[in-house]
Specification:
Length: about 250
């Protein structure tokens, strides 16, 4: 099966006041369809940079990235945005919802950019909200919801377009333990039921423990890439080592 994401020797440097910062120094990895992966590592190690590259929100300084088999380097920005919209969903620590817009319309929004008609948009948004247990909150605005509910709206929005991959950057970072646990239980279930691959960045070992594979990043490189047999949906294929040949 075509991998959901395949990175080969991915590097990203930033220019900061004439000085080059090598945030990522050559990362190769393959994320298969349906995987559940946690990316962990110290502050400043390059986790967010890697997530931005994998999510095509940024382009690498060098190296190659294939998204569902499509190599992105030759794509125009418009073509890349379209590929991203169709294949990748994002969840952020701070939810990023439109504050004055109902949950239903927040979730339906990505489908506007795909040209889906209003009736179908709303029907799909409703189903996505029901899938995260918010079928009774369709008309609530974010300010009328708890943090955990807002993050569930953000998850519904990320998944309404049925992407291959969900990228989540510290999805429980702004939540208390109970809401964080609830969000992780939803991610476990969505991964098991819909087969969406999940890649999440976290500082919390309890959150990383949900994943079946843990990638440790340090100083812009993959330090360790291990299977976690205790991961949430154990019973799937436990990957031994998904780094590309020549890595490390
Ligand atoms: N826009 C930028 N301009 C310059 N340097 C940057 C930029 N973004 C990140 N960096 C640097 O790149 C390195 C990696 O940053 P990154 O945000 O990817 O780390 P991280 O592992 O996600 O950290 P944290 O856990 O604190 O969020 C750091 O040294 C950071 O200072």
């Amino acid at each position: 099966m075509t991998p959901a994401l395949e990175a080969v020797d991915l590097a990203r440097s930033y220019q900061l006041e004439g000085v080059s910062v090598d945030a990522l120094r050559g990362v190769s990895l393959r994320i298969d369809q349906g995987e559940f992966v946690a990316i962990i590592g110290p502050s400043g190690s390059g986790k967010s940079t890697l997530m931005h590259l994998l999510g095509c929100l940024d382009r690498p300084t060098s190296g190659a990235l294939r998204v569902n088999g499509t190599e992105i380097s030759a794509l125009t920005d418009t073509a890349l945005a379209s590929l991203r919209n169709r294949t990748i969903g994002f969840v952020f620590q701070s939810f990023h919802l439109l504050g004055r817009t109902s949950a239903l319309d927040n979730v339906a929004l990505p489908l506007v950019y795909r040209g889906v008609g209003k009736v179908e948009r709303r029907a799909r948004a409703r189903r996505a909200l029901e899938a995260v247990g918010l079928g009774h909150r369709l008309d609530h605005r974010p300010s009328q919801m708890s943090g955990g509910e807002q993050q569930r709206v953000a998850i519904a929005r990320a998944l309404v377009g049925e992407p291959s991959v969900l990228l989540a950057d510290e999805p429980t970072g702004n939540l208390d333990t109970r809401n964080g646990d609830e969000v992780m239980a939803i991610l476990d279930r969505l991964n098991a039921d819909s087969g969406v691959a999940i890649v999440l960045v976290t500082h919390e070992p309890e959150v990383a423990a949900h994943a079946r594979r843990q990638i440790h990043v340090r100083d812009g490189l993959i330090e360790l890439d291990t299977a976690n047999r205790q991961g949430a949906s154990a019973g799937g294929v436990a990957p031994e080592d998904h780094r590309e040949e020549g890595d490390g």
